[in-house]
């Protein structure tokens, strides 16, 4: 038997695939990780547009940062367009960053209990920040008077 035939014969003795060192500990039938990966790519693209637009408007137009004050924010948030723009930035940034941190927690926490509590703390903090930010954007009152 030739050397090539022996090599080909031995290659069939190997397992079908070798697990990646960063592969999940338990095989899952859901596509959650695929969707999380896709979300990171699409939310990153959307955040680039939202953040660069935000920075351009805040820093480049008119007097730039010198015009930003309470009246500017009040005028901006009186428009539903800017409320949705800022809300989209807040939600996408929180979900994008939280998803990335969830991946870091899954990769580097050794104990299941540590992973559970860190992920729980992450989810609770994300929910609180998104809820508080949403509340502020939609209930902002430009007619505040000093008491």
From TrEMBL:
GO terms for molecular function: metal ion binding. Residues 1-16 have a biased composition (Basic and acidic residues). Its main location: membrane. It comes from the Bacteria. Keywords: Heme, Iron, Membrane, Metal-binding, Transmembrane, Transmembrane helix. Pfam families: Sdh_cyt (PF01127). It is found in: Membrane. Residues 1-26 are annotated as: Disordered. The chain crosses the membrane at residues 34-61, 116-138. GO terms for cellular component: membrane. This is Succinate dehydrogenase / fumarate reductase membrane anchor subunit. It comes from Rhodococcus triatomae.
